[in-house]
Amino acid sequence: MTDYTPEEKELFDLRASFVDYLNAGDADGIVATFADDVVLVPPNSEVVVGRDAAREMFAAMAGGPVRMEHGPVSRLTIEGSLAYTVGCYYLHIGEGEDAQTVFGRSIEVWRRGEDGQWLTVADMWRDEPAVPDSGPEL
Predict the structure, then answer these.
(1) Given 3.30.930.10, 3.10.450.50, 3.40.50.620, 1.20.120.80, which CATH number is that of 6-127?
(2) Nearest to 117 by CA among 32, 49, 53, 52
(3) What is the pTM of this model?
(4) Is the pLDDT of residue 51 over 70?
(5) pLDDT, tens only, 52-65
(6) Beta strand 118-127 with 48-49: parallel, antiparallel or unpaired?
(7) For the segment 15-30, what is each residue's pLDDT rounded down to a tens digit?
């Protein structure tokens, strides 16, 4: 088992909270992990800027059968009040025979505010053409 610093553990916990909020369809919970000036770069979509626009995007997703799980983080770097993670995810869309799983990679940038709280300031993710047979690689 890997030993993480308290800051690393906090960031991993925040990433897990995002997934929990997404899977619960809780757009307000999701954007609570974002800075006011967050920039989101989703695949095949327009760039989303700001907490309000992010709330609209995630609220639109909340009605459908979508479930996400994070894969491993291949890199976590913390430099002062900025941090970034490079990782992957699995997005399970639909139910029954029409269900599909999308594998993708992401880069998340975090900023620690004066209050000590980490918030996402940028998140870019992309879907891959196929779910890998073995563990994800960068």
Answers:
(1) 3.10.450.50
(2) 32
(3) 0.86
(4) yes
(5) 999 999 998 776 78
(6) unpaired
(7) 999 999 999 999 999 9
